[in-house]
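Need the bound structure for PMT, inputs here:
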Amino acid sequence: MKNVLLGVTGGIAAYKSAELIRLLRQQNYDVRVVMTDSAMEFITPLTLQALSGHAVHTKLLDASEENAMGHINLARWADILLIAPATASCIAKFAHGLADDLLSTLYLAVQCPVYIAPAMNQAMWHKTVTQENIAQLIMHQVTLIGPEAGSQACGEIGLGRMTEASDIVAALDAPEQLLLNKKILITAGPTREPLDPVRYITNRSSGKMGYALAIQAEKMGAQVTLVSGPVALEKPSNIAFISVETAAEMYTVVMQQVSEQDMMIAAAAVADYTPATVQADKIKKQGDESILALQKTQDIVASVAALKDKPFTVGFAAETKNLEHYAQEKLQRKNLDMIAANWVGQAEGGFDSALNALQVYWPEGTKNLAMCSKNELANQLLTLISERYNAKNSA
Ligand code: PMT
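Answer from helper R.:
Posting the output first, comments after.
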């Protein structure tokens, strides 16, 4: 659970803070509220206390509050400081380091990320001094959410409306844009190798790991192309999507798409062997034994890593024993930049599970990513990939 310290300042949009608190709590944030004197002219502390489940803080020098949780304790408690709505006056105070009330003092005292959602009349927003103050705050690593354009409470139309509460929550959840404008090709899911018109060879991959990577990479700013084997998952939005069935089809599509990619992540469980011939008619039952002739498929990730201008190439290794040994061997033999090794065939993690754990190897190091949801794991793996990518490209 993350702790959000919500600062509410005095603007008509203060009524939206009530909905914001409700949505934040729905997302499992613990919310404590600080109100300025003018905010209390627009909405009562009692409303925000009821919604947040905590007493609202209003005074810098209040003996009782100071005992319960003084401004330094509040600042230490916060994982995020969010000001919504943020008036022109509060923005000006922050920009100049003025600390004459609880909220502006907290701004100086916190060491966590700060987000502001401005709300004001459009002329006030466009005023040079406001824009200078905003530029100052951005320089100080404050993240700006909005404002939005539209009709305003004062009757004017323009930029200055506070961003809707749901979009503010989404902005807090957005991961850092570590992969901004990077082109990433990701394979996911199993392949299906036909034997005859009614049967095929496949494996237990659900596509969850590869799809989580694609979705998280897009959230981190990447332009993602997802090449997916047959899975039961919904096609993710904002992602170029190509569906394939066999290892041969996946090979063809990947080799068509790979030029101009910055990175390739091979999370698909590709068949190593495919039936040597596909029978035109259903194979009939004959005798007690039947021997199937198989032939090797092309190794997709190794073919990508063999290209002259190869992208930063990340493979996976799915193992039931000797995880490190096999992963290191694949890293070298396939000429990969990184390999993410996972145990499969265990009670938890690996194929189909919502959870997974990875031991990641690259030529100079290794990192353990402990068991967690595949979404969270995707975040951690992509962060590591971006670090290694930057290290390789700055070398
Ligand atoms: O899909 P889920 O249910 O979420 O499960 C996730 C997963 C277990 C499938 C995933 O985390 C994973 O481990 N994917 C790789 C599975 C695999 O085929 O591993 P491998 O060790 O057999 O292959 C090594 C690497 O070579 C992989 O990156 C694979 O994509 C690639 N490969 C293999 C064969 C082939 N012909 N071409 C390839 O590119």
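Comments: The chain has two domains: 3-173, 183-394. The mean pLDDT is 94.
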